[in-house]
Amino acid sequence: MDGRVLPILLGPTGHPPKWYEIPVPSADGGPATVLLYERVPAGYSKRLHLQKGWKYAYAPSGQKPRIRWPWTKPTPQQRDTP
Predict the structure, then answer these.
(1) CA distance 37 to 52
(2) Distance, CA of 53 to CA of 41 (rounded, Å)
(3) Coil/strand/helix, residue 80
(4) Which CA distances in Å does 1 have to 11, 23, 36, 71?
(5) pLDDT in tens, 23-79
């Protein structure tokens, strides 16, 4: 990232998106590399422990986790673990 501040569209709840992808073009003209950032709390107040806002943290894995809906069945690996 080059230090620019990019506008982020807010969702219907007023929150920024959970994941933010930044495509970085390759120097040799090949496919672009996608950097992935996750929304995390920016911090908490001392007295009431209220959240101060959001910031984006780099996710080195480069992959978003699968969405788990509450009504879906657990996978076989999740059933075996206590």
Answers:
(1) 19
(2) 6
(3) helix
(4) 24, 10, 12, 39
(5) 888 888 888 888 899 999 999 999 999 999 888 899 888 788 877 777 777 666 655
